[in-house]
Amino acid sequence: MSDPQRDAVLVAACRAASRFVRNHDWECVLREVLDDLARAICADRSHFSTIQRQDDEQDWLLHQYWEWVADGVAAQIDRPEFQSFAIRGSGFEEFLPALAKGLPVHRLVRELPSPAREMMQSQDIRSFILLPVCVHGTPYGLIGFEDCHNEREWPAAVIEALQSAADTLAGSIERNLEEQRRRTIEEQFRQFANIAPLAMWMTDVGGKATFLQGSGARFLGLPLTDATTEQWAEFVHPDDRAIRSVSIATAMALHRDYEIEYQIWRYESEYGSVYEHAVARFDDTGVFAGYFGIVLDITARKRAEAESTRQRRELQSLLDAVQAQVIYVDVDAKAIRHNLFSQRLTGVSDEQMRGGTVETLAPFWDDPKLRHQQSLDAIRTGQPLLGSVEFYNVGDRKRWVLVDKVPMRDDSGDVCGLMLFVYDITARVEVEEKLRQQEAQLAHVGRLTTMGEMAAGIAHEITQPLTAITNFAAACQTVLRRLGESTPTKALEWVQKIETESLRTKIIIDRLRSFARNTQPHRSTCDLNELVRESEALIEFEARKSRVEIDHELSEALPLVQGDRTQLQQVLVNLLRNSCEALQERMADGRRIRVATRAADTCVELLVSDNGPGIRPENLSRVFDAFFTTKPDGMGIGLAVSRKIVEAHGGFITVANSPAQGCCFSVKLPTQSADK
User: Fold this and answer.
1) String of b and e for 269-305 (b: at least 16 CB within 10 Å)?
2) Tell me, what's the pLDDT at 58?
3) What are the pLDDT digits (tens) for 530-574?
4) Across 324-396, where does the E strand assignment appear?
5) Residue 513: CA atoms inside 13 Å, Cβ hemisphere, count?
6) How far is CA 57 from CA 52, 53, 97, 648, in A?
7) 559 in Cβ contact with 671 (< 8 Å)
8) What is the CA radius of gyration of the chain?
């Protein structure tokens, strides 16, 4: 190649590089560049094809994009086979490795393999050169120059100049592709910003808005072009303006990010809630350059949170109103919360309970491991466990509870926890137990009543034989006295004793019949000392059997009382019998009961004391309660009835342990004059 021709090629390559650098749109100058280069190297045809790699990357498809031909040379760009030309199988496979590495390829057509040679000769091509255009290190296209009249060998200087032009084209394509990519990203970002439920903005170092995009303007009810960050601040709720301004000013002074929630006026109708988050921007030298931020509409979320909070409070209020333990646990049977009643009962707060098992947090449960396993079974099977009667101990008292365990399910129907309802049924169980005891005691009372009626009948039947014995004893005395001195003294004495004892027995039976007789209360003037003697006679046999001595300290000048003799006698008998029974725990020798009467102001006091073991201090306040007894076979009704009788007579009865030994019952009754 001559020097003038080489210079022309270099000048054309320089012009090509200059055009590609100045113009961002390489397609606009590609035709001029290839035309100029082809003329400079005296080529008959030049063209540019893009490369499409196949999936296996072992073959290329060439799509002819542009072509220039010299005068008298036929154009080939319109031929369909050149718009999707496969390298593999065309005879050009040997060029692929070099082209893939970005190396130019040039040949004489007559040296090509048969398929490639025939295809090139059909276009009247004698020699050619192909230069790859690599974008980001990957072949993007091919520049080709062809000779149709003469063959040529391509000098290194020409190849170097043409490759320089190809590389410059590659750079232009890279810039163009990057620009397209940037514009695509910007457009996508702009579209996203316009449809996203948030406003995006940017400020400079002084806080002046340089960008506002997105739904923020629509959120305020303004056109997109009318919205600015300055306008935005005017719509902030008056109550939130100060704290927002302080937060932003503090962050700007420290060049820090900030986030804040506040209310803003929207659509000229109401205030909504927004979340604002700003990130500090810095330039390449680390100098603060302003903020990039977003404002997100959280009105719906705030309303949902408020509604959820309201519902939770209502539910908690309902649960707190329930007079039973309500405990909620998760799928692992770990406690989440319990109601106010449960907190007061157990003394365990919500915070203390959270995370532990219900049973281990309630140490009074009878079998925590079993109860925990029952909870897990209910969660696993999804089947409720209802009406389980259990008990636990609070202090020294056993408490009975009724437990319902109900699985809770989420929106998809899966078990998400367990609700426990624990009802304290201790009072009900105790009432039921008392009712059973009362039924047994009433049955015992019924038996005693029947026995009393039988005893009254027997006493009635015994009265007639006793009367006969008394009469016969009197007759015997009359006969014996008529015998005069011949009458045995002992015989007469024995007959007199028979009569005396018969009369005494009859008097006792009459008193028993009177005591047991079901008569209407009848008040009359009563001598309390006389009632004491009659009552002692009624229990004389029981006292003698128990080897109990009864001492008297009866006041002689004792005022009379007004009352029902039978009822008052019942009180005295009950007190004397209780003392006899209490003395059974003492040794047989020295068992004594002391009965005393005395006048005190406007009343008469009766004292019945014994030297027995006394009454336990914790039972002193309960001895007069109905059905309370400390005796295995007792019914607990004697002292209760006695108190009612005394109170019905206007008096009162008390009990106290003696300092030395035993206990003392005191009965005070108003005198006859006090009643008047």
Assistant:
1) eebbbbbbbbebbeeeeeeebbbbbbbbbbbeebeee
2) 67
3) 888 888 877 787 788 888 888 888 888 888 888 888 788 888 888
4) 325-329, 335-338, 385-394
5) 14
6) 9, 6, 12, 118
7) yes
8) 61
Q: By the 8 A CB rule, do 390 and 365 touch? A: yes
DSSP 8-state symbol, 236? B
Which strand (E) or helix (H) includes residue 10? helix 3-22
List Cα–Cα distances, 526 to 531, 554, 560, 566, in angstroms: 8, 15, 6, 10
517: tokens are: 């007789």
Contact 345, 324 (CB under 8 A): no
CA atoms in the 13 A half-sphere facing the CB of 180: 9
First-to-last C-alpha distance (Å) of the chain: 162
Strands (E), 319-436: 325-329, 335-338, 385-394, 397-409, 415-424
| Helix segments in 617-675, DSSP class H | 638-648, 672-675
Output the six-digit token pair for 44.
């008959």
Whether the CA torsion 527, 530, 532, 534 is positive or negative: it is negative
Query: Which letter does DSSP use for residue 197 in this model?
Result: S
Indicate the Cα dihedral angle 430, 436, 437, 443, nearest 10°: 160
Residue-level length of the chain: 676
Whether 236 contacts 273, CB under 8 Å: no
Give the Cα separation of 559 and 645 in Å (integer): 20
Q: Measuring CA to CA, which residue among 29, 6, 45 is closest to residue 169?
A: 29
The C-alpha atoms of residue 375 and residue 418 are separated, in whole angstroms, by 8
3-state secondary structure (DSSP) of residue 268: coil
* The two three-digit tokens of residue 526, written as one number: 């009563």
pTM across the whole model: 0.40
Find out whether 477 and 495 touch, Cβ atoms under 8 Å.
yes
d(CA 239, CA 87): 74
Query: Phi, psi at residue 107, to the nearest 5°?
Result: -150, 160
Closest residue by Cα to residue 142 from 175, 111, 104: 104
Tokens of 54: 């196949």
The residues of the chain scoring below 50 in pLDDT are 1, 224-227, 363
Alpha carbon 420 to its chain centroid, in Å, reads 10
Q: What does each C-alpha distance from 577 to 265, 347, 391, 543 come to in angstroms?
A: 91, 49, 40, 8
Q: What is the pLDDT of residues 106-155, one digit of tens each?
A: 989 898 888 888 888 888 889 999 989 888 888 888 888 999 988 888 88
Edge to edge, what strands does the sheet with 198-203 contain? 209-214, 198-203, 288-297, 270-282, 258-266
Question: For residues 158 and 671, what is the distance between their CA atoms, to the nearest angstrom?
Answer: 152
Query: For 423-552, where are the alpha helices, taking DSSP H only?
Result: 426-482, 489-516, 528-538, 540-545
Of 235, 185, 188, 191, residue with least CA distance to 214 = 191
Q: Are 38 and 12 in contact (CB under 8 A)?
A: no
- For the segment 61-99, what is each residue's pLDDT rounded down to a tens digit? 888 888 888 888 888 887 777 777 887 777 888 888 888
d(CA 260, CA 68): 64
